[in-house]
Amino acid sequence: MQDRLNQLQEEALLQIEAASSLKELQDVRVAYLGKKGPITEVLRGMGKLSEEERPLVGALANEVRGKIAERLQEKQVLLEAEAVQKKLAEESIDVTLPGRPVPQGNDHPLTRIVQEIEDLFIGLGYTVEEGPEVETDYYNFEALNLPKDHPARDMQDSFYITEETLMRTQTSPVQARTMEKHKGKGPIKIICPGKVYRRDNDDATHSHQFMQIEGLVVDENIRMSDLKGTLEVFAKKIFGADRKIRLRPSFFPFTEPSVEMDVSCKICGGDGCSVCKGTGWIEILGAGMVHPNVLRMSGFDPEKYSGFAFGMGPERIAMLKYGVDDIRHFYTNDVRFLKQFSPVDSSTEK
Amino acid sequence: MLVSYKWLQSFVDLGNITPEELAEKITKSGIEVEGIEQKSTTMKNIVVGHVLEKETHPNADKLNKCLVDLGEGEPVQIICGAPNVAAGQKVVVAKPGARLPGNIKIKKSKIRGEESNGMICSLQELGFEGKVVPKDYAEGIYVLPSDAIAGSDALELLNLNDAILELGLTPNRADCMSMYGVAYETAAILGKSVQIPKSNYTSSNEKTSDYISVTVEATADNPLYTAKVIKNVKIGPSPLWLQTRLMNAGIRPHNNVVDITNFILLEYGQPLHAFDYDRFGSKEIVVRRAKVGEKLTTLDDVERELSSDHLVITNGSEPVALAGVMGGANSEVQNDTTTILLESAYFTGAVVRKASKDHGLRSEASSRYEKGIDPKRIHLAAERAAALIAELAGGEVLDGLVEFDQLVTEPISIAIELSKVNQFLGTELSLDDVASILQRLQFPYQLDGEKISVSIPTRRWDLQIAEDMYEEIARIYGYDNLPTTLPKGEQTAGGLTAYQKKRRIVREVLEGAGVNQAITYSLTSKEKVSQFALTKAEPVELAMPMSEEHGVLRLSLIPHLLDAVSYNRARKNENVSLFEIGSVFLSNGAGVLPKESEHLAGALTGLYINHPWQAQKVVVDFYTVKGILEQLFKKLQLDTMIRYEKAEYEGMHPGQTANILLNDQVVGYVGKIHPSVEKQYDVKNVYVFELMLDELLHTNVPPLAYTMIPRFPSMTRDIALIVENGTTAGELEEIIRTAGGKLLKEAKVFDVYEGDKVEAGKKSVAFTLTYFDPSRTLTDEEVGKAHEKILTALKDRARAELRQ
Ligand SMILES: [Zn+2]
Predict the structure, then answer these.
(1) Which of B94, B616, B727, B740 has its Cα between 20 and 30 A from that of B782?
(2) Contact at 8 Å (CB) between B396 and B231?
(3) Per the annotation, does B472 bind a ligand?
(4) Residue A160 DSSP one-character state
(5) CA distance B388 to B201
(6) Which tens digits make up the pLDDT trace of B147-166?
(7) CB of B52 less than 8 A from some CB of A
(8) Fold assignment, B412-477
(9) Is B250 strand, coil or helix?
């Protein structure tokens, strides 16, 4: 009987070893350890044994059972792990296939530029002011020291609607309106973005409609050096900290003195190239100290107050920053153009 | 203004400063040098040649075979195609190995079998613009004066090695429309003095006043008129130095007298005019406004009809010149002219500008009068011109002059204070610093402690107020040297208004939904303007549009968005999603500013989502666009105030368009464009929307407040309703909401079915109803009651049956 038990154990262990699936293993379990299995059968025949032999055979039977159960358990863990592996292998996918697209649009590049400038000046304590695109002759010209027969009016041929109303040619009327609203009391610190219109034929560098963004500061004791400092902050933020700036005297009827600001050319680093027409400098904006006539007309006492103003064209800045070669791209809205302007731009990161 | 470096050097000692360095300094001090041209840098090996013999080319009638002495070795044979080449001429020769502008290289060659050792050049070939080449040489080679030495450097002789600085003058710096003006500017920048040539001539015994008289009737337009007479003049070409001065300044040489008037115009900035005295037609000059309908043929052979806006010089009976703009053909100086009547006058800018504008005539003279001239130079210029005419045209200058003079020039003096200069500029200049700047500018001044009284010379009529002087001081001091500071005053809190913030949110939401921001033109055509308009209004029209396409102000943003869709489609961009934020312009009547209303519009077409390998394509339809808008309203906290209603608009599909109502006011619409519009714009299946953005963003919404996360469960019940086909989900939802009472939290459509399984003419709409009370768990009984009420209402008001 003991031989029989040992033989059963040997057989069972061989079959456990051979089992290649959980199902087969279960069959082995039932076959050897089940109620109708051979070990149970052996135990049933124990009655025939002597008193001395009985406990010995009983112990052996339990030992065999234990051993088989142990090996079954070991094998079970192994086969389960294999099954998981197999399942995972079956679930494997091609991770290089493209993902499901999520629609995403972009800001228009001009909006990007405007917002970048707005945010910079908001940080310096400015608010954003807007005004009408159809203006009176008064706000567009006269309040800006451009009386009706002023020769500089030739510089900006305009779309008139009636003799007294026109499409604004600049965002400066917003400055005049804002100063009026302040009733002669400073400080004013504003930035005015918006669309403006001039009688130009649309081509690669001209557009009858374009954007402008202007700034105005009016307070007691505003100095020309404050203008220079402010423009320097602007240029370094928008064009990069490594760029140099240069102020040149210029002329605008609403400022005195007037300046134009150049930044050093990014392409050639200041040595001169075709983009900067060999000068090493690129003209970016016009600015100046608010003309006393403008202050006076808008209700400020030029003896007490002074101020500075600056203005620039987002198209020009976008063209320089991104290398856009034709101003018409901004207005034809080709999606292949619009989709290029991600909100991340390393050129001005520090 | 084109400024010759060599000419400038005759007024100011430029020392070792190169033209480039000078340009940089001038630019930094206020006048932008837009370019420097030195023509000789593109040329070499160009010499004077002496044409010894000329005969027709044996194999070509139009070519000439010339024997030319180049001043070294044997004369060489050169083939020349110019019709005006002749034996005895001194000409410009590009030798073999020469280089000409445009990178043209000259080599020894054979032309029609004959050897050619170089090229005889025209002025155009030497880089001069056609419009400055003297008429006699416009079609052929240029002939040098006979005293030119064969073999000498022709580039030097023609002043092609001069550097020409192109100044971009702002309107306030018209003082630099003369070499003198530029000389004073340069001298101030460099700290040098200005040398002015003296005019010397011997007057004849005859008096000018015996020859001519002057009467000015239009005294306001012409406060000063002077005239001189020069007799026995011999008209001929000017000397080469004078011709090249003019050509380098962009002016075509004509004859000695005319060239001298132009030379003086360049030198002094004072326009002069030379009349042929014998052709003048009388012995009196009368300056007056033209009579209506009066005619004058100007020097350019155009007959011009005049009006009382125009000032004319007359001989007492008829006009002989359009004052300050152009002379008349009837009194033009010609080759046989012997006596010159020379005009030097002050015409006001306004009257000259009007004539120049009306007749489309901009001359060197008119542009100077328009921007202003220095009254002190009117006589000086006339004297200097007379002297030059005597010298170069052999004339005899009559004694004295005739003139009318009522010109009053108030001396201008500007008072400044050192402390104010420094306060304004942010500098710490000393009195000596300021004084030395004034000296460099050659402005006389008087000191009284720290007060400075500056006398402004008449040549700087642009300087009027203290700020003008601050600018002069700053620019000579150097803008580079100004300190950099930031405003010191009261701190202000920057930021956006609530409206501006929300507008940024609008962009974020739309872009997050895959729509790209577009910007289109505000000006549109009459044809497009009324289509899609949310508010019907008479469009605002431009008085003088440049084109029909951009003649009126838009009433809707959609037409130009459709143009953009069409533009994209023509370039095979089939999937387009665009939005725009911009103003529409509603007329308030003529002469009054229109109402500008900020709108938001969009146009979407093609695939909204395209994921081919998993066969997932979402084509843009009405509900795609509506879904985006719902998302937008939700973000703006307006969703509960918004309702949709079927609507009809011109240009829109009548079955697929909805009005969008905000608190029962129409604020926009969404829908598909009409097939006829698809055809008009050459687009397909485009869905658009337009909203009154200002109405949306100005609407008050409740302040943000936390709502407790529900602690008690909600209960849902699904119902499927059989209703008439025409009944809308919106109507059903409305009934459910009203009947549902407080417990009903939400009613959501989850299925819509039309087909075999329901009766014809009917459809099934299924809703999930959610019941909820934040303070407790609802009982089946309560929910059942509310639910019953809803079902009854649906049955009563929409004849809705529960689907079995
Ligand atoms: Zn460059």
Answers:
(1) B727
(2) yes
(3) yes
(4) B
(5) 8
(6) 999 999 999 999 999 999 99
(7) no
(8) Phenylalanyl-tRNA Synthetase; Chain B, domain 1 (3.30.56)
(9) coil
